[in-house]
Design brief:
about 170 residues; elongated
């Protein structure tokens, strides 16, 4: 009879689960862009969340999580591609902010609808891929290398950084 053990990275995985509804909202807003009524409010809410929380979370990953993975792997620089994802995500969020501001309260013209829809789906797709890489590749590395106490400390440090960054914005 095989026993299953709870991954030590459960707190980090739980945080990803908390992000999931916000990512789903990106897709929902993308689908509703053509029917502009109410979309502008949802668009500003989802983009605001991405700017305020998601980018703070990314900064905490870069400062705390990724160095821990590199140490566990014995591979300095191994997280450079993940950091590049973060830069692309931040760039996409800022472009979305700019496009939404250009459209204003709407309704959006057909080309603006298509541009916004593409931006929203593109951001959603890269976020899905990025989180899958963390869940399927990075967190198992930490599960194998760290103790539950190590992960609690890591998670506490990430949470403190996320809160600190969010307050300063």
């Amino acid at each position: 009879m095989a026993t299953t053990t709870t991954p030590v990275t459960t707190p980090l995985r739980a945080e990803h689960r908390q992000l999931a509804p916000h990512l789903d909202e990106l897709r929902a807003v993308a689908a509703s862009v053509g029917a502009w009524s109410g979309t502008v409010t949802r668009l500003h809410e989802v983009v605001g969340y991405m700017r305020d929380h998601l980018l703070s979370h990314a900064g905490a990953e870069e400062a705390v999580l990724y160095p821990a993975v590199e140490r566990a792997m014995g591979a300095p620089g191994a997280m450079d591609t993940m950091i590049a994802d973060h830069r692309d995500i931040a760039r996409r969020i800022e472009k979305l902010v700019d496009t939404a501001a250009e459209v204003g309260p709407g309704p959006a013209r057909a080309e603006e609808v298509e541009d916004l829809r593409g931006q929203l789906y593109g951001l959603w797709a890269i976020l899905q891929l990025h989180m899958a890489k963390e869940e399927e590749v990075l967190l198992p590395v930490l599960d194998a290398a760290l103790t539950p106490a190590d992960v609690r400390h890591l998670f506490d440090e990430m949470s403190a950084r996320t809160r600190s960054t969010a307050r300063s914005q």
